[in-house]
Amino acid sequence: MTRRIGRRGFLGLACAAAGGVVLGGCAGVPASPLPVPAPRPLAIPPLAPSTTRDGVRTFALTAAPGTSAFHPGVRTPTWGYDVAFGGPTIRASRGERVRVHVTNGLPETTSTHWHGMTLPAEHDGGPHAPIEPGATWSPEWTIEQPAATLWYHPHPHGVTERHVHRGLAGLFLVDEPDGASPLPHRYGVDDIPLVVTDRTFTADGEFETRRRSAHGLVGDTLLVNGTVAPYLASSSSRIRLRVLNASPARCYRFARSDDRPMVLVGTDSGLLAAPRTVGSALLTPGERAELLLDLDPGRPVTLRSLPQDLGAVSGTERSIGAMDTLDVLRIRPAGVLEPSAPLPGALPHEPGPDESAASRVRRFELGNDVINGRAMDMTRIDEIVQAGATEIWELANVHSRPHNMHVHDARGQVVEADGRAVAPAQRSWKDTFYVPPRTVLRVLLRFGRHPDPARPFMYHCHLLYHEDQGMMGQFVLVPEGTDPGSVPRTPLTHGADHG
Ligand SMILES: [Cu+2]
Question: Taking CA atoms, which of 127, 213, 444, 463 is between 20 and 30 Å from 406?
């Protein structure tokens, strides 16, 4: 009897063998013609410098074009915040007042959104906060949420995918005020940021942008903190990986190459109640996970992305790269490792809301580039929410393709997936929710406390091409007791003042 090697299995081996770079191309994903570079040390994004005066910690970022060397001797045009590709890691604590001067050194209008942050709408950095070329935008707010791995990226109307794809993205880490943590917390040593994204390169070394799938731009080469084929040398017996899926469309299922479990300690917007052993972690675009990996002296292990069942029709899964196996990061432990503290039984954690706290239920049907049958309209307020409210949002993917949903200025927990209740112990704080095709999630969402009936927040699919195509809506927060009928359904226009 002949044994037929499935296409999935073959491609998986081919991809894994190439150290994060696909040999011969994975199914449905454009192939890079550039040779695979030798493994190189993982770059760690620099920490953004800040100055504190009058109780405000001030950062400065400049978005500008640059040139990156992902492959030896090949120059790739990129965009970045302060660096050629990506951005520095901003770090501040709960309770701190922060200001960020964002200067646009790009040849076109952009914006900068603080993904996962709870803050007044005028500082959120969505499509209503454009920064013209040469201009500086200076949002300022107080951090009012627990420790979490947040991030920042452009959000200009209709062209978010292009701006992010050119390289604009960075982490924003929120710490607890006392700085104490039972988890590894030496940045770049045992607390490792991993900004994972994917690109296909042209023969000239440019990012390929002409061949877009139905989901947007999907690449065959992983960039981890801007490094192709990265390795991490570690002298710690336990490392914490803060993983961000910064890809425009590609989804990842992270796992160890030696099949040992990992320990999940945090999701998008906060730590879990207790460490949880997991075999793998699925992250769709915009989602984060904090994972602990235990290492053995002298025994390398690789963080991989494995094939994932996104529940879509097969052609769709091929074009989004869901059948691929990719090496994300090779980890090379030293021969002698620093011992690690025992795993804490519980983590500093904010208890989740109770369903009885929900004041109402809203349903959102995710369709083909529309939400509830409508495409994004900058001049239309879709939903009016009371500031500080807890609500249930039913996210119903009525489409045959994968979508997710990111809600600005909100943090929440999935309480029911496809009719099955999620036990409180299994819930975790999130701001971006994967909604498989033909599936309904019920999400208990807690909204920010700053009303502004004139300036909207966004909710949208974080597959950036879908977002750009119109899979986005707008909500405003109004003061408690406001009659929704009295709220104008048209937001302020760009740059207009209140009043
Ligand atoms: Cu989508």
Answer: 213
Query: From start to end of 105-169, where are the E strands?
Result: 113-115, 136-137, 140-142, 148-153
Q: Select from 369, 191, 354 the least CA-distant residue to 266.
A: 191
Contact at 8 Å (CB) between 474 and 381? yes
Spacing, Cα 471 to ligand 1 middle (Å) = 7
Going by C-beta distance under 8 Å and a sequence separation of 6 or more, which residues neighbour residue 122? 129, 139, 452, 455
CA 452 – CA 311 distance, rounded (Å): 39
For residue 462, report the distance from its CA to the centre of ligand 1, in Å. 6
**Element containing residue 315 per DSSP (H, E):** helix 314-319
| pLDDT given for residue 28 in this prediction | 80
Same structural domain, 96 and 157: yes
CB atoms under 10 Å from CB of 285, counted, come to 28
What token pair was written down for 43? 């770059």
pLDDT per residue as tens digits for the range 157-197: 999 999 999 999 999 999 999 877 899 999 999 999 999 99
The pLDDT of residue 493 is 63
121 Cα–ligand 1 center, Å: 24
Inter-residue contact 273 to 311 (CB < 8 Å): no
Same domain, yes or no: 359 and 409: yes
Q: What single-letter amino acid sits at 433?
A: F
d(CA 91, ligand 1 centre) in Å: 30
Average pLDDT over residues 354-369: 95
Return the percentage of the chain with pLDDT > 90, whole number. Answer: 85
Q: Is the separation of the CB atoms in 58 and 97 below 8 Å?
A: no
Has residue 311 been placed in a domain? yes
Nearest to 127 by CA among 491, 433, 497: 491
491 domain-assigned: no
Measured distance CA(45)–CA(225) in Å, rounded: 7
**Ligand 1 mean position to 439 CA, how many Å?**
13
What's the rounded mean pLDDT across residues 357-374?
97
In this predicted structure, what is the pLDDT of residue 18?
40
How high is the mean pLDDT of the chain?
A: 92
221 and 327 share one domain: yes
Q: In angstroms, what is the span from residue 403 Cα to ligand 1's centroid? A: 4
**347 within a domain of the structure (yes/no):** no
CA distance 260 to 277: 10
Q: Compute the distance from residue 394 Cα to the ligand 1 centre, in Å.
A: 16
Q: Calculate how far, in angstroms, residue 31's C-alpha sits from the geometric centre of ligand 1.
A: 23
What is the extent of the structural domain holding 475? 355-486
Nearest 5°: the CA angle 139, 143, 148 is 115
Tokens at 330, concatenated = 């090779």
Distance 320 CA to ligand 1 centre (A): 12
